[in-house]
Amino acid sequence: MRVGRYVSALAATSVAVAAGIWLLVAPWVLSYPQQASGWGPQVLTDFWTGMAVLVLAFLALALYGGTAARALRAPVASAATAAVAEPTGDEDAAPVPEAMPAQNGAAHEPAAPPPVAPAPAPATASGTLDDMLVPIATALLSDLVKRRAAASGGGNTGGEGS
Amino acid sequence: MKPPRLFSGGTVCTGLLGLAGVWLVLAPFWVGYQTAGTTWLRATHNDVVVGAVLVVSSLLGLFGQVAFGLRDAALWVERDQRAAAATGAQQQEA
């Protein structure tokens, strides 16, 4: 979600805040005529209208600011959703999730299927830390698959292999 | 994910600010401290100018809200269709 709509709304609301403050002080800055009984109709009109404008403007600022803050946090979630929704093409070469049920389902068969080839590095791993972590994760995954294959095969053949 | 909303509570407040601007323009004549056909008082000048500024800024804010909101809605629909197409392709491959 973009935040342009909130920037325009916040700018308009900021103008309203300034107008409200000005309306509150204008009767004294512009020396409106006072009455002996108190404030005149001009002062009353500007003061109470300014108060209402200020309250509305602050309320709008709070509402727009809250929504804009949520919109600024949204790109992280939407980017993750887009990464899940848009396949990169590596899913075909990394059938590891499908291999796990196959290993468990083959526990009662004499010969366990061969270990699955380790998953290649994802295309999104471009940073230095990712470049370091991806081979480690790949080796760990390969080792885990081999151990599970050996355990399922060893359980059927009388405990051989570990 | 929910689609972006076109209107919100802030939009209502912006509309009320525009109405306050209309009130400010009319107030000198409505309340009665400015009679028609006579020289305008300082209060009348001030109220009309500030009211016009409020009306214009509120209209611009509402216009920006609607314009950017429509653009966000269009982007959301496009992304939703792309995600649905990707999900369908994955199901076909499976």
Kindly list the characteristics that best describe this protein.
heterodimer, A: 162 residues, mainly alpha, 4 helices, 68% helix, 0% strand, rod-shaped, disordered C terminus, B: 94 residues, 80% helix
Task: Give a quick precis of the structure.
The complex is a heterodimer of chains A (162) and B (94). With 162 residues, chain A is mostly helical.
Describe the structure.
The complex is a heterodimer of chains A (162) and B (94). By secondary structure, chain A is an all-alpha fold. Chain A folds into 2 domains: 4-85; 96-156. Chain A has 4 helices and no strands. Chain A has helices at 4-29, 41-85, 96-105, 128-156. In chain A, helix 1 (4-29) runs antiparallel to helix 2 (41-85). The two termini of chain A are 52 Å apart. The model of chain A is unreliable at 82-109, 121-126 and 158-162 (pLDDT under 50). The mean pLDDT of chain B is 87. In chain B, helix 1 (9-31) packs antiparallel against helix 2 (42-93). Chain B is mainly alpha-helical and 94 residues long. Chain B has one domain. Helices cover 80% and strands 0% of the residues of chain B. The interface between A and B is large, with 44 and 49 residues.
